[in-house]
Amino acid sequence: MICTLCKPADSARFRKIELRNFPRASHYEAVIPAGNRQYWVSTQKGIGCFYLEDGIVRNAVFYESRNGLRERNFNSGAVLRLSDGQLIFGGSSGLTSLFPGQVKPDPYEPAAVLTGFRLFNRPVLAGTTTADGFQLEKSLSSLEELVLTHLDNVISIEFSALHFSCPEQNYFAWKLDGFDPDWNYGDASQRLAHYTNLPAGNYTFLVKAANSDGIWNQEPARLKIRVLPPWWRSSAKNKKQIGFKGSRNVGKLMQLF
To answer: CA 129, 133, 139, 143 torsion: positive or negative?
Structure first.
């Protein structure tokens, strides 16, 4: 979601910020500072908070009915900060009040794990061989390196997080180092990274996880990926390996070299 803030001292200056942990297609109804660079936001799906440091959003957290919030539909502009720091939000069912300092985030940093591999959108189980000869020797979490040929040009990597208090509210960031310029972000409904037609070369897939309160584990799960070039672009040294790893008709032909 995109939120627009303006500096009180200069109402002509606006800044757009992205709140990745907030639900999509949610309308902002009110935004109020709570002190210490913290902001609280009400929407038509719940309320959330985030820290804004030098224009960078930190620890964005969203609360809704499954977190114990009774109100869901908040009213536009209906927010008040009292002298004791208490925030009051108005909604269709009444008032919701909270003390920001008493809302403590879950400090647990969930570890990300690699849980599955798909080739041409079909799951490939560890220790099995596909109909066209691709073999996944071990699970991705135990595999030292995933070696692909140029024929394996539609792949998907599945992942999850070892945190089960609100697993549907975990968040993920993933990146194929050597291919993706930046991190990709998604919620628990997007635990799958897709890649097609990767050029020959060496890559490292990285994925890290955050809990429902936006606390990230900065140590990602890793998987080395090597894409072998087609035989007509290979050196004689690599042709034998292409034939062994490919296990395709073209790969079998390479074994003759």
So the answer is: positive
Longest dimension (CA), the chain: 82
Residue type, 116: G
Q: Which residues contact 209 (CB under 8 A, 6 or more apart)?
A: 110, 111, 112, 159, 160, 161, 162, 163, 170, 171, 172, 173, 216, 217
The closest alpha carbon to 212, from 235, 188, 177, belongs to 188
Q: Report the DSSP beta bridge partners of residue 12.
A: none
pLDDT score, position 249: 44
Q: Name the 3-class secondary structure at 16.
A: strand
pLDDT in tens, 216-234: 999 999 999 999 998 877 6
Q: Are 167 and 187 in contact (CB under 8 A)?
A: no
- Cβ-proximal residues to 197 (8 Å cutoff; 6+ apart), any chain: 153, 154
DSSP 217: -
Counting residues of the chain whose pLDDT is more than 90, the rounded percentage is 47
What is the Cα Rg of the chain in Å? 24
Strands 145-148 and 221-227: parallel
Residue in the block written with tokens 């297609």: 25
For 176-207, the pLDDT digits (tens) are: 999 999 999 988 888 999 999 999 999 999 99
Containing 201, the helix (H) or strand (E) segment is: strand 201-210
The dihedral sign for the CA sequence 212, 218, 222, 228: positive
For tokens 């584990």, what's the residue?
A: 217
At 66, phi and psi to the nearest 5?
-70, -10
